[in-house]
Amino acid sequence: MSFKRETLEDGSVRVSSERCSFTYQRPRPGVVFIRIVGTDRGEFGTAPMDELREDISRYAPIELFFEMDEVTGANLPVQEAWTEWFSSNRPALKSVSILTHSKYMHFTAEVVKFFSRTGELIRVYLDPAPFEEALLRAAPDASRFIRK
Q: pLDDT tens-digit profile of 35-51?
């Protein structure tokens, strides 16, 4: 399966396929807000992680915010790839916040957290309020990323 990478008018970057998309927005240096939609079956390879390479090289440790309200699934190889990436990049990460309303994706994120051995570096939220508070602490002007 193929995918495309595009820079949008507002400067954000979207990596997308027929079933899934990752949109990367950077409210300030060292803070990346990532909205994921759909089901990731591995069609992107390492592209979603590679998109963070420059942020890490320029601004480490960085803060990541994943909004996964519209994620319908991620296969096991994708979960394993993120687990390995979080584990390998732990020193370059200040914090990782993950928001999802799906109990299945919440469980999936908790499994990735556990097996990445990152401790409390990763926080998984079902309630948007503490996720949004963390985002606004990291980037006070990031309110435009919060869904109303």
A: 999 988 899 999 999 99
